[in-house]
Write a structure and sequence with these properties.
The chain has two domains: 4-92 and 178-207, Periplasmic binding protein-like II (D-Maltodextrin-Binding Protein, domain 2), CATH 3.40.190; 94-176, D-Maltodextrin-Binding Protein, domain 2 (3-Layer(aba) Sandwich), CATH 3.40.190. The protein is built from seven helices and eleven strands. The protein has helices spanning 11-22, 55-60, 71-77, 118-127, 161-165, 185-190, 192-207; strands at residues 4-8, 38-40, 46-50, 66-70, 83-88, 94-101, 111-115, 132-136, 152-157, 168-177, 179-184. Strands 2-3-1-4-11-5 form a six-stranded mixed β-sheet. It has a five-stranded mixed β-sheet with strand order 8-7-9-6-10. Strand 2 (38-40) and strand 3 form a beta hairpin. The protein is elongated and about 55 Å long.
Length: 208
Amino acid sequence: MSLTIALNRGRILKECLPMLAEAGIEPLEDIDSSRKLVFEATGGHKLIVMRGSDVPTYVEYGAADVGITGKDTILEYGRDARFYERLDLGIGRCKLMTAMPEGEEMGNGPLTVGTKFVNISRAYFEELNRHVTLIPLAGAIEIAPIMGLADLIVDIVDTGNTLRANGLTARETIADISTRLIVNRAAQKTRFDDVQSLVNKLREVVAG
């Protein structure tokens, strides 16, 4: 039987498509040259391309049987999500970190934090017993301290070049991030053989 697979568009999509191809699942048309969001694939499977933040929602509520997205997205979605995290695909590796203007320190007083990872940041600073005001940002997070909007930011750090270009330095690592395969709870039970077959094939690809 076929599976409906939700895919995180962007960098993760480009890196996971070759892995899916090795596992025997390839779109029947070129995803890059199409404006469609739903694609038929070999084996009768269906691929859905969407924003990363939507992947857990589609999987949790059963619109997709499985999904591929970053660990940061999963953590931000929440600890009580009704899906299973089955496999680390080992791609899209980076870190979720705090960052501040070079030469500045956190101190002990209240902080203003700019981030798109509001839930993760709230949990992190609560564990540190720090009082923070969280400012949700969708983009241009690095300029928040420059413009006086925030004392520091919480963001994804890969090379760190963007931080340095904006006068920031990475500080504390909150989480190591990579791309994960998640599975709808009902699909894990009712379509166990199909799901497990995909997990096993992708595990072989990762190991190889």
